[in-house]
């Protein structure tokens, strides 16, 4: 289901605001007081990791079910128009025709709004009267629906006949809805084709076979396949009817008799229509306007009066615009007709198209403004005497996307290209928006820069988004964009702690009681993030061991690295162990072999020259890494005969805590302060295959959500490999099970 267009500048952090925890495999090189841990965990109440929602596209739809056909003119809107046009002071519109304004939710809501019924009814009273009478006293505007039973006279005549015959006549060029009882037509015209319409109805619950005898009137000639006299056999099922049409015309004036239509069953006449007298004249004694064809025959002035006063949209008297087109070839009539239709708010594409024939610039302009194909061909921001196209008219709508959790933080290859947009809908919307910006003359406006900043943030291009936001300036705080502008200012401030997060704090405080529920939730999430940042900073500054700073090395198969560059060796029955050290590019090694720990995977260094070679006794329990190699990332190879074991040494001062159940990690410095902007690359093992999952940077809390992604699900992930890399503090690799029980 479509949203209502409120998911603007959503916070990608607000789903991961729980305390950090540890893998059962990890170990710490410092002591953590258990009571402190329990108190903090209880206060923070972390929630288990859950699969992020599928990315949704949000658009302002303006009205529910806004199709024009669902909002049709009816008696209620006629009374509303009369009420609005009244010269007297207008009060609430209390129309009994409100029951007709129920074609869709939008129409019903609009009708209720115009009626101005109170949200709470007054204390109405019903007073009993004489007999069954009663009086209703209303204390507030209301709608009263009443029903009563009244006596009516019984129908006259014999109603037991099984067949009923009805005869009607209408001009052949008109619609059959103009048909009348021939006895009510005072005059028939010479040489005017007519249609005699006979309807026979079986009003009995049994099937009947009958003969319908039809004769054209005296003095007339049959037309088409009709004959002077013809018997039509009919087979009518229970309560069914049949229709017969006979065309004729009168070649001369006079008074002529029309034989009744007779229905017979088994040779016996059971129903007749009665005789008719036809008065035929050469010219009508008075013009009787029964259809729009009669209006056309009355001249252009009558047509203009019809357009001005009658129900054109509803097709009164059989009106349709194609009937009007031949008259529009006349330039003077075209100008008058279009002026009348324009005043009534009516429009017809073909009728306005005659403006090109007559060189009517206003009509051409109005026509081109609604021709979508023309607007798309011209592109946005096109200006001319006949047509002008703005970005809104060029079919660009601002669309929001949430949640967006991108797969890559950097583009592939060299040149610093932005990472590709994997969400097809976002990519298409961003492309249309750039097309509009490229066509716009002059500098970008405030709203356009804010939109551009938003779409850049959807791609995690924070620096470029911040530049566009600064270019928009303070003008974005005026008008209807203040809320969005303030939220974006606070969001961008979370990526720059140099100012003490003053902007984010001001915005969170200013909008903490925002009346809009969805926006208030966003500002509450912002305040919660700020509180977490303050908590992490104060907790480390007080010298208390940060529970989230637990750092642990993955166990090796036959050797385990301890703090201080000391290896614990497990070897039985070996005389000597060979040790080789290889300097590695940690990110390259990780990208080629992400799962080194506990999986049996061993990189091949046979073609690489070691930076150190040595041997240790087979009974040695420990071995210390040479001092000269402790500042490099190393692959440590231990071999003894056919046995070969690898383990990794990271020249790193980072402390990384992995919260497996919640799907995020936290990076702190050696003094246990949160470290923002630390690069994290994530690989996943899916069905035994290793593949890139996502990458990105830690936030101001030192936190990174490694398990959530908009374009893929973590449900099939068996295990994660995590590379944490900081230019100044080194890097390390961790592994983690999939969160949430996957």
Automatic annotation (TrEMBL):
Record's protein name: Uncharacterized protein
Organism: Eutreptiella gymnastica
Taxonomic classification: Eukaryota, Discoba, Euglenozoa, Euglenida, Spirocuta
């Amino acid at each position: 289901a479509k949203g209502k267009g409120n998911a603007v500048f959503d916070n990608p952090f607000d789903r991961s605001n729980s305390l950090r925890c540890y893998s059962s495999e990890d170990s710490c090189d410092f002591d953590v007081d258990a009571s402190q841990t329990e108190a903090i965990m209880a206060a923070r109440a972390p929630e288990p990791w859950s699969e992020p929602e599928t990315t949704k596209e949000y658009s302002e739809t303006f009205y529910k079910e806004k199709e024009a056909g669902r909002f049709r003119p009816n008696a209620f809107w006629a009374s509303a128009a009369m009420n609005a046009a009244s010269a007297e002071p207008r009060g609430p519109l209390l129309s009994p025709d409100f029951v007709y304004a129920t074609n869709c939710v939008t129409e019903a809501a609009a009708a209720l709004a115009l009626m101005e019924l109170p949200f709470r009814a007054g204390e109405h009273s019903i007073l009993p009267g004489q007999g069954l009478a009663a009086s209703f006293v209303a204390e507030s505007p209301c709608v009263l629906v009443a029903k009563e039973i009244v006596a009516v006279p019984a129908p006259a005549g014999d109603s037991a006949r099984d067949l009923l015959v009805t005869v009607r006549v209408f001009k052949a060029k008109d619609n059959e809805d103009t048909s009348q009882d021939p006895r009510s037509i005072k005059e028939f015209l010479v040489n005017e084709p007519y249609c005699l319409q006979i309807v026979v109805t079986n009003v009995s619950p049994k099937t009947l076979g009958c003969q319908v005898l039809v004769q054209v009137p005296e003095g007339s000639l049959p037309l088409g396949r009709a004959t002077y006299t013809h018997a039509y056999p009919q087979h009518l099922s229970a309560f069914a009817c049949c229709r017969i049409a006979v065309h004729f015309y009168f070649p001369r004036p006079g008074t002529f008799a029309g034989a009744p239509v007779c229905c017979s069953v088994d040779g016996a006449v059971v129903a007749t229509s009665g005789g008719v007298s036809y008065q035929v004249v050469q010219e009508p004694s008075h013009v009787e306007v029964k259809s729009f064809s009669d209006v056309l025959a009355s001249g252009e002035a009558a047509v203009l009066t019809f357009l001005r006063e009658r129900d054109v949209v509803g097709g009164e008297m059989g009106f349709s615009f194609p009937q009007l087109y031949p008259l529009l070839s006349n330039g003077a009539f075209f100008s008058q007709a279009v002026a009348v239709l324009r005043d009534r708010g009516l429009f017809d594409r073909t009728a306005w198209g005659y403006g090109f024939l007559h060189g009517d610039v206003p009509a051409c302009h109005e026509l081109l403004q609604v021709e979508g194909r023309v607007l798309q061909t011209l592109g946005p921001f096109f200006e001319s005497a006949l047509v002008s196209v703005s970005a809104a008219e060029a079919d660009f709508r601002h669309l929001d996307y949430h949640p967006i959790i991108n797969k890559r933080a950097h583009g592939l290859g060299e040149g610093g290209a932005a990472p590709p947009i994997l969400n097809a809908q976002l990519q298409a919307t961003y492309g249309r928006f750039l097309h509009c910006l490229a066509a716009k003359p002059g500098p970008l406006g405030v709203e356009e820069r804010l939109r551009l900043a938003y779409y850049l943030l959807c791609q995690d291009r924070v620096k470029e988004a911040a530049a566009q936001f600064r270019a928009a300036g303070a003008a974005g705080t005026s008008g209807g964009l203040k809320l969005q502008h303030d939220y974006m200012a606070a969001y961008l401030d979370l990526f720059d702690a140099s100012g003490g997060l003053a902007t984010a704090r001001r915005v969170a405080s200013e909008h903490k009681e925002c009346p809009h529920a969805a926006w208030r939730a966003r500002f509450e999430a912002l305040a919660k993030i700020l509180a977490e940042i303050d908590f992490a900073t104060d907790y480390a500054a007080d010298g208390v061991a940060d529970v989230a700073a637990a750092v642990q090395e993955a166990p090796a198969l036959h050797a385990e690295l301890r703090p201080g560059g000391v290896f614990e060796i497990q070897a039985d029955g070996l005389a000597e162990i060979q040790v080789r050290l290889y300097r590695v590019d940690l990110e390259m090694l990780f990208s080629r072999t992400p799962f080194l720990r506990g999986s049996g995977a061993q990189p091949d260094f046979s073609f690489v020259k070691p930076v150190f070679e040595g041997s240790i006794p087979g009974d040695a329990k420990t071995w210390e890494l040479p001092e000269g190699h402790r500042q490099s990332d190393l692959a440590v190879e231990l071999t003894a005969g056919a046995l070969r074991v690898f383990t990794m040494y990271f020249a790193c001062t980072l402390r990384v805590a992995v919260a497996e159940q919640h799907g995020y990690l936290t990076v702190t410095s050696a003094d246990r302060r949160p470290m923002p902007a630390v690069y994290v690359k994530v690989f996943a093992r899916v069905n035994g295959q290793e593949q890139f999952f996502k990458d990105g940077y830690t936030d101001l809390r030192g936190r990174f959500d490694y398990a959530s992604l908009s374009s893929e699900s973590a449900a099939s992930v068996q295990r994660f490999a995590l590379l944490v890399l900081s230019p100044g503090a080194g890097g390390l690799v961790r592994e983690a099970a999939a969160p949430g029980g996957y």
